Amino acid sequence: MSIRADGPGRRALLTGSASLAAAFLAGCSSTEPIDGTYKAGLAPSAGPPPGTPKAAYERLMEGNGRWVTNALRHPDRDPTRRQLLATSQQPYGAVLSCIDSRVPPELVFDTGLGDLFVMRSGGAAVGPVITGSIEYGPMTSGTPLIVVLGHQRCGAVSAVYEALREGKQLPGNLQAITEALRPAYEQSVRESHADPAEAMAKAQVKLTADALRGNRDLAPLVGKGALAVVSAYYSLDTGVVEVLNGAPA
Ligand SMILES: [Zn+2]
C-alpha cells in the first residue's frame, strides 16, 4: 500500500513567514511529503494522510469510535512505518491536550506513528511556546486540523478553580497555569454552572480554539478552508470525544 503526499497544494503553503519558520525548523524535523512505498508490516495501514480539514477530522473521529467500542486497529505502528518516516513526516493533525495520564491523544484517536503533532500541558493551558508548537504544522507543512482537547475531571482545572475561588496562589511554576486558565475560570463563574470546574474545562478549550482560529498566522489558513480548529471534550467514563465547536462542515 502506498502513502503519497497530497502534492503541491500543501507544499504551496510554504510561503511568506511560513517559509521562514520552515527554514528555521528544518534542522529538527523534515516536513517533506512522504513518497515512500509502505509495505505491509505488523500493523494495518490507515492509508495516505488526509489532506483536508474534514477528512482529517473524520479520520480522528473514526479512530475515537474504535477506542470507544474496543475495535482498535493500532494502525501504522510497526518498524516498517518507522523506517518509512525516518527522514520525513506529514502529520495530518495537531492535538493540544492535558498532561493527564488518562488522555493520550494517540490512544484515544487510535492513530499511528507520524500521524499527529502532540502538545500537552496542565489543563491544556497555552502560552507562547505551546502556541508556536501548535502553529508549526499548519504554518510549515499544511497540517489541516488542530484539536484542542479538554477532559472530564481535570485535576489541573479543578486545582486552578479552587485556587482562584479562594484567592490563593498555587506553588512555584504552577501559578503560571493558574494565570493561563484565568479567562476560562472567569467565564465559568459568569455563566454560573451547576458543575463549575467541568464548565471551566470546556470553556478553556473553546476559548483556546477560538483564539487559535482567529490569530494572525492561522486565521488566513482557516479563511481559505485549509485549516480547521476544533475544541473537544473527552469523557473519562466512556472514552467519547465530544466536539464542542469548530467541526469542519
Ligand atoms: Zn487534565
UniProtKB/TrEMBL annotation:
SUPFAM superfamilies found in the cross-reference section: beta-carbonic anhydrase, cab
Membership in a protein family: Belongs to the beta-class carbonic anhydrase family.
InterPro entries: Carbonic_anhydrase (IPR001765), Carbonic_anhydrase_sf (IPR036874), TAT_signal (IPR006311)
Protein known as: Carbonic anhydrase
Purpose of the protein: Catalyzes the reversible hydration of carbon dioxide to form bicarbonate.
Example of a GO MF term: carbonate dehydratase activity
Cofactor remark from the record: Binds 1 zinc ion per subunit.
Cofactor: Zn(2+)
Gene3D superfamilies: Carbonic anhydrase
Domain of life according to the entry: Bacteria
Binding site residues for Zn(2+): C98, D100, H151, C154
SMART domains for this protein: Pro_CA
Keyword Metal-binding on entry: yes
Keywords on record: Metal-binding, Zinc
